[in-house]
Write a structure and sequence with these properties.
Length: 107
């Protein structure tokens, strides 16, 4: 068994902790990029420790941001897109139409 402070590659960590899934080397790389997994890069190799992997997978209390990002349960209504994005798209479309109309009038 590995000690908590021994270094291992992300591939080794994925194989050690999840031999048949659900997390892979790519999953761990994503977690590292998002700051969820403590890593060190040496000679372009991304290394972590068993302790860091355990810390990453330790359950924590849900925050409002986590709850908001959670997918809707099966059978639930699909989440509506934020109004801000829809408004931005509508504004951009309106601006484009106005520019086209203005260009046609001056031509």
């Amino acid at each position: 068994m590995w000690n908590d402070d021994e270094t291992l590659t992300l591939e080794e960590a994925a194989t050690l902790f999840w031999p048949r899934g659900p997390l892979s080397t790519k999953s761990l790389r994503t977690a590292a990029r998002r700051g969820q997994l403590a890593v060190v890069v040496i000679a372009r190799k991304i290394l972590t420790t068993p302790g860091a992997v355990r810390a990453m997978t330790r359950p924590v209390a849900a925050t409002p941001a986590c709850v908001a990002a959670a997918p809707e349960p099966a059978g639930g209504a699909p989440a509506a897109r934020p109004k801000r994005r829809a408004d931005a798209i509508a504004d951009a479309q309106q601006a484009l139409l106005e520019r086209l109309s203005s260009a046609r009038r001056s031509a």
